[in-house]
Amino acid sequence: MKVVKSEFLSNSKAVVRKLISMLSEEYKYVSVLGTDIKGKSYRVSKTGIEVNDSFLVERGFVVRIHNGVNYSEYSFNNISDDTLGAIVKEISTKLNKVIKDISVNSYDIIEEKEIKEIFIGEMKIDPEEVGSEVIIKTLSEIKDAALAHSDLVVNIDAIYNTYHISKLFMSNKKDLEQSYMLGEGYIFSIARKEEKTKYYFKPFSGLKGFEILDELKAEYKNVVETSIKLLDAKNVQPGEYEVICAPDVAGLIAHEAFGHGVEMDMFVKDRAKGAEFIGKQVASKITTMHDGATAANHMSSYLFDDEGTIGTDTVVIENGILKAGISDILSAIKLGTTPTGNGKRQSFERKAYARMTNTFFSPGNDKLEDMIASVKDGYLLEGSYSGMEDPKSWGIQCIASFGREIKDGKLTGNIIAPVVMTGYVPDLLNSISMVSETVELGGSGYCGKGYKEFVKTSCGGPYIKAKVRLG
């Protein structure tokens, strides 16, 4: 079924067009981004039920103008014929005052092509039609079944988040609209034996509605059993190992290594080492990586970004060569490059930055069983937990939930946890020696720009074999 368009944004279009016309009498570039995001967060556990608005919920507009030197922005919540005069006055007085008081960089005027397009997403079951009562009942059933699976389980969290995202972008040349649904779920299992407590969680995500809860129902037993196995997990002996990274861990590496590392606003600020390596080898020849709103069909797939740039598929690494970065439109102007549709905002009240969309390694030709058979002493790493990267020095740290021991090409059944993987990005990527045939993506949670500016992204890949330092 088709996702429903935002009535609020549809009813605002005529007034937005008037505002653009009025501002265009004084400014050479004017654009307006309108957002209307609805969503709920549901959490059911042994201790209670929580229902809240999702993190991204908002409704409002941001105007961007070229003020004669660079760009200024003004955000507001409501627009009508009665408020147009006040908005124009605020922009003319407050935004121009900034130029007089502060030393700023100059930017050329954004050049646009005529385009009018709309994207309406699809889903199987609309959570807004299903309603909170049914959603809570379904999560409660999953929680109860998981708790009943083992006496060692002391608590279960069953979580479902919905995001109904609607946006419009208008300028003198652009008329763009999009509306789509994102869904994400989690099963979080806590197991306890004697004095030891361990937990494991598994996320689910996609351009989906209520139907994503079927995935939670299908997987709760595996999550519970993994949390129990972790009770007997050992610590890893620090050192360098051959490892096979499951798709979620491979995605974590892609996200941290040449996701953040090639966000081109960092090129402008001379804070990214990747700028020095465009056109050079940074990974093994069997390594290719993509980022883009159209590169995959997942949590960061859209028609246009928050600056009105149509989404693309950027080949970041091709056969080991660093080919390109990902950019917002203002960074592209400064660098003399073409914007890639990666300008994203946490909200209409926040600045647009160059941000990742769907970031992943491309598939290869190897089979997982052959990859395992090739490892003499190492681990199969699973469960993406967290990561960080220093774009200036290319140090990387990724944490996986656990590792399955491999000895002489066979899984032994022994588990290590947790697993901290560290290294120098080119060393890690150049060590990739095998890549499996299929790609899986995930996009639960949020990606921050440093410690803030949270947006939805997805990442993933095939299974990859590499050499890494574990601790």
TrEMBL record:
Residues 238-465 form the Metalloprotease TldD/E C-terminal domain. Pfam families: PmbA_TldD_3rd. It comes from the Bacteria. One of its GO terms (molecular function) is metallopeptidase activity. GO terms for cellular component: cytosol. GO terms for biological process: proteolysis. Keywords: Hydrolase, Protease. Belongs to the peptidase U62 family. PANTHER family: METALLOPROTEASE TLDD, UNCHARACTERIZED PROTEIN TLDD AND PMBA. This is Putative Zn-dependent protease. It comes from Clostridium saccharoperbutylacetonicum N1-4(HMT).
